[in-house]
Amino acid sequence: MDNPVFQKKFKKQTYGCAGEVRKLLTTQTGVTFLDEENYKFRLDNGALLKLYASPYTPSLGSGAFRYHPSQGHEFSIDNADIVITHGPPKGILEVTNSCQRAGCPFLFEAVARARPRMHCFGHIHESWGAKLVTWCQKAIPAMVRPDARPLEWGSETLFVNAAIKGGEALPVQPAWIVEFDLLSA
């Protein structure tokens, strides 16, 4: 199995080629595969949903969509209602079982600038939960309020760590359902 040609052929035969899953999802199910970028979706009710998605997360290991924590990553969030990322921002629902902070400071800075209504992520399974942050004028989290009133555009962000997998790799944490109004077209 040390032969690179054999490895490449084995990988292709076993897992397929890059882009095959995206093609299957798009043509057979109508699912939109989200690469890292800003999206706009016109909903059936005429409302416009603005979304930013990124699979990138800091890691010292290897694998897809990872970058070295010291090198950083540019998250170009542009006026999004919802931000969806793989991992959490620094300081928000990102503490591991070993009491280490695993969030990304570059992501936190980008979200603080953009101030979306919601930021949904996972990756740190043990920090599952939600946190409402009210931003002060300098885009620093000022306080957390658990009340259930409508979010104030540009001044509050609901952060949701939606990781459902528990410590034993089983889905033990319930899924989140979040509703909020969007501006009409």
TrEMBL record:
* Superkingdom of this protein's organism: Eukaryota
Please report the name of this protein according to its UniProt entry.
Answer: Calcineurin-like phosphoesterase domain-containing protein
Instruction: Specify the signal sequence span.
Output: none
